[in-house]
Structure formats: structure tokens, C-alpha cells
Write a structure and sequence with these properties.
Layout: H1 2-18, H2 22-32, H3 37-44, H4 48-62, H5 67-75
Amino acid sequence: MFSQKRNQNKKEIINEVSTLTNQENKIVNLICEGMSNKEIASTLFISSNTVKTHIRNLYSKLEITNRQQLIEKLKNHP
């Protein structure tokens, strides 16, 4: 029963992550590397406000509110 629940959670995470745009995926990877918004903006040649917008959108899609939750959610991702 617990393994079924865990598998269901993994499927939900996969579905959530698959809805991210290419740019959002890049930002997720850079967040996981420990970069700040300013560093991400510089790396991707976009403004800090654009980074914030992408982060806000991906938090909404993944139903999270901060970077720590993002990292925890991704740890459970296959």
C-alpha cells in the first residue's frame, strides 16, 4: 500500500515537472546548483525580474513556495 502511494506521488511529480518550459528547467537546474537570481540572470542573459517571473511560474506549477521545497520535490523525482 505504501509503495503504491509512493509510486503515485512519483507519477504526480513527473507530470508536474514535465509541464515546465525549457527556460524553467534551466532555472531549476541553476537553482539546484545554488545560484542566486542575479547569477541565474547573468548566466542566461536575462533580467533578474524575468528570473523572478520564471521562478514564480514554476513554483505555481509545482505547488511549492520556496527553493528548499523545490529541491526536496526533485529529490523524489526519478
